[in-house]
């Protein structure tokens, strides 16, 4: 034994920051060693956050802080020989942050998420049983080399997640040097870090032997099987507790995965783009599933979370993974039926699910996450429930089979690029409660021909059945389509408003417009006739007409302003610029009957007289 740091309630003691942890007087069960003896049993108090430290003070008769300094120096000199041992148990999902020798640079987290900026080391099964950890000191050698132990040092400290009532149960906390104990009891753990080329099938062993030493296989490392394109089946044993980031990403042929019931964490992107994988079963031991762990597994037809899992579920045989506490659906598939108890659909939950053809979002759902259904190329029918209030950025982007969408009156916000690239979308109805529409929400919707904002919306409108979305307060037209008729009350055309509408052949810009945003008409490849009634040349953003056939296009403007347009940047690029009285019949453009109609030019504005009424060039009656 290098040093004895056991508490003596004088110079060596455990303290708790005021008002944080409280003693858990109801702890039950034996300690880590199986004996009916005490262990550290604390609860997070009403303040939310909680912390404690084991302190070595100057009043310690044995000067233990000097022993701690000697230990720190020896760890720095021989980092591969030392381990920190600890045991922890709980039946809740709180995470806990620890650090040693008073250095916050040695932080590490036991749990499913980072707390107090500590990196996650590992998680544990929340079943009320003890889980043992042997943490290599080599991970802290650099940090420990920059400090010196002195009286008052916290040789070990703990901080718990700010959840009142969360448990911190600790036992058997000590440092040890592996050369000090019998080799048979040395904890030898191995992480699988790579695979041979052309591997087709693997059953990962529970133990491996290397140079006479046997190691328990407890982890699959980051990118261990990344792009093993011939791998078709994997069996993961019960000894494995963690699957690293990108561990099986882009294994295109992987069709069968069996995950052992010792796994507690599945890393970010772990099975991303495993396009042949048709089913997955999540054991009840799993407490952490990383970001986009199953992204673009587009052949999924069956998803099951085993009964008894306290963190995730697949309630009502829904073929999905739901985060139980938050009722958030985080992974779906082509056969998912969203239960009416789900309140949110997580980011990327269905992204890339190319076989999904229809989805009904129940009234219980209040939010649809970013990219939730992006790149669902076969998704043709979407019903959004009346409980949804927000649709995230790119939520339905590039759903190229979607033909219509009705945004219910419950929705208040539509994220940027929410329906971007929905190339078959022909009609959109915006509910009367929408107050925010993000940039590019309907950009690249090339087939869009009908746009309606329901009456009563205080933020947006589609005045005069114009087939557009107009921001009411600013009179800015922000979303247009191939059938849009710009009202004479619009003062600005927003960025990307008509971007890439290849079927748009002509447009009339009324006299009221003073500015046009960037990329507004760019890549309208068939747009060859532009009638601009504005006497004052509208100010243009960048690339307004980029990608248009400008050399073949004709611009019609008020006669007295021709020279101004010919001198203005971007406008001057039109192949032909002519006065308004040479413009094609606005009656024909707006499908007004031409019988008994007369055209005339007044103050540079083209007017149409018919049956005692006067219309402007885009067919709106002037009263």
Q: Which spans of ≥5 residues are poorly predicted at pLDDT below 50?
A: 180-186, 586-597, 599-606, 616-620
- The counted number of beta strands is 49
Largest β-sheet summary:
8 strands, mixed
Rounded average pLDDT: 88
Judged by helices, strands and strand pairing, the structural class is mainly beta
The share of residues in extended strands comes to 25-35%
Count up the helices.
Answer: 4
Q: Which sequence of strands runs across the widest sheet?
A: 23-24-25-26-28-30-32-34
Q: Tell me, briefly, the overall form.
A: elongated
Radius of gyration: 33 Å
Helix % is under 10%
Distance between the termini: 98 Å
Structure, described:
With 623 residues, the chain is mainly beta. The longest helix is centred in the N-terminal third of the chain and has 14 residues, at 64-77. The N and C termini lie far apart (98 Å).
Summarize it:
The chain has about 625 residues and is mainly beta. The strands form eleven sheets. An eight-stranded mixed beta sheet has the order 23-24-25-26-28-30-32-34, with no helix packed on it. Strands 1-4-10-6-7-8 form a six-stranded mixed beta sheet.
Topology (elements, then pairings):
Layout: E1 12-16, E2 21-23, E3 40-44, E4 50-56, H1 64-77, E5 82-89, E6 96-100, E7 108-110, E8 120-122, E9 131-136, H2 141-144, E10 153-160, E11 167-177, E12 189-192, E13 201-203, E14 207-210, E15 213-220, E16 233-235, E17 242-243, E18 256-258, E19 265-266, E20 279-282, E21 288-289, E22 302-305, E23 312-313, E24 321-323, E25 328-331, E26 344-345, E27 358-361, E28 367-368, E29 381-384, E30 390-391, E31 404-406, E32 413-414, E33 427-430, E34 436-437, E35 450-453, E36 460-461, E37 469-471, E38 476-479, E39 492-493, E40 506-509, E41 515-516, E42 529-532, E43 539-540, E44 554-557, H3 562-567, E45 576-579, H4 586-589, E46 597-602, E47 605-610, E48 613-616, E49 621-622
Parallel strand pairs: 7-8, 12-15, 13-16, 15-17, 16-18, 17-19, 19-21, 20-22, 25-26, 26-28, 27-29, 28-30, 30-32, 31-33, 32-34, 33-35, 38-39, 39-41, 40-42, 41-43, 42-44, 44-45
Antiparallel strand pairs: 1-4, 2-3, 3-11, 4-10, 5-9, 5-11, 6-7, 6-10, 14-15, 23-24, 24-25, 36-37, 37-38, 46-47, 47-48, 48-49
């Amino acid at each position: 034994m290098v040093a004895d740091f056991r508490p003596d309630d004088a110079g060596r003691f455990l303290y708790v920051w005021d008002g944080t942890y409280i003693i858990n007087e109801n702890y039950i069960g034996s300690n880590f060693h199986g004996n009916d003896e005490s262990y550290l049993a604390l609860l997070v108090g009403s303040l939310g956050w909680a912390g404690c430290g084991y302190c070595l003070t100057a009043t310690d008769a044995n000067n233990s802080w000097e022993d701690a300094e000697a230990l720190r120096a020896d760890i720095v000199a021989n980092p591969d020989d030392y381990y920190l041992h600890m045991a922890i148990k709980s039946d809740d999902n709180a995470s806990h942050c620890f650090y040693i020798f008073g250095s916050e640079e040695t932080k590490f987290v036991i749990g499913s998420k980072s707390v107090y900026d500590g990196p996650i080391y590992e998680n544990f099964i929340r079943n009320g049983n003890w889980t043992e950890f042997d943490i290599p000191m080599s991970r802290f050698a650099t940090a420990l080399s920059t400090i010196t132990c002195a009286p008052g040092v916290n040789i070990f400290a703990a901080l718990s997640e700010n959840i009142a009532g969360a448990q911190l149960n600790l036992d058997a906390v000590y440092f040890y040097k592996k050369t000090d104990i019998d080799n048979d009891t040395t904890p030898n753990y191995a992480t699988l870090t790579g695979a041979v080329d052309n591997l087709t099938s693997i059953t990962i062993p529970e133990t491996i032997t290397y140079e006479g030493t046997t190691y328990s296989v407890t982890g699959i490392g980051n990118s261990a099987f990344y792009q093993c394109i011939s791998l078709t089946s994997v069996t993961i044993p019960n000894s494995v507790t963690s699957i690293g980031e990108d561990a099986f990403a882009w294994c295109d042929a992987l069709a069968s995965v069996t995950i052992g019931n010792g796994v507690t964490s599945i890393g970010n992107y772990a099975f991303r783009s495993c396009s042949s994988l048709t089913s997955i079963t999540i054991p009840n031991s799993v407490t952490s599933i990383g970001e986009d762990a199953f992204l673009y597994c587009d052949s999924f037809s069956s998803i099951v979370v085993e009964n008894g899992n306290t963190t995730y579920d697949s309630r009502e045989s829904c073929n999905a993974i739901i985060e139980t506490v938050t009722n958030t659906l985080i992974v779906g598939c082509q056969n998912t039926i969203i239960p009416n108890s789900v309140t949110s659909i997580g980011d990327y939950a269905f992204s890339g699910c190319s076989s999904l053809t229809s989805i009904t979002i129940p009234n219980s759902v209040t939010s649809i996450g970013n990219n939730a259904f992006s790149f669902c190329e076969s998704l043709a029918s979407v019903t959004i429930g009346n409980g949804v209030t927000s649709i995230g950025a790119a939520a339905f982007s590039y759903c190229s089979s979607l033909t219509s969408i009705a945004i219910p009156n419950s929705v208040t916000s539509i994220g940027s690029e929410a329906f971007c690239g929905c190339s078959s979308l022909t009609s959109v109805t915006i509910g009367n409660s929408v107050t925010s529409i993000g940039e590019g929400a309907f950009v690249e919707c090339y087939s869009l021909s009908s746009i309606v904002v329901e009456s009563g919306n205080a933020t947006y409108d589609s005045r005069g059945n114009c087939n557009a979305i107009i921001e009411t307060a600013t009179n800015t037209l922000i979303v247009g389509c191939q059938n849009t008729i710009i009202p004479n009350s619009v003062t600005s055309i927003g960025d990307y408003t008509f971007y890439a509408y290849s079927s748009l052949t002509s447009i009339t810009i009324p006299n009221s417009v003073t500015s046009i945003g960037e990329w507004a008409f760019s890549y309208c490849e068939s747009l060859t006739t532009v009638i601009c009634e504005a006497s004052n040349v509208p100010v243009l953003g960048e690339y307004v007409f980029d990608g248009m056939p400008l050399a073949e296009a004709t611009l019609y403007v008020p006669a007295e302003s021709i020279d101004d347009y010919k001198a203005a940047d971007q406008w001057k690029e039109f192949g032909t610029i002519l006065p308004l009285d040479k413009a094609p019949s606005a009656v024909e453009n707006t499908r007004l009957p031409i019988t008994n109609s007369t055209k005339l030019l007044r103050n540079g504005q083209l007017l149409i007289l018919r049956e005692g009424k006067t219309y402007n060039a885009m067919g709106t009656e002037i009263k």
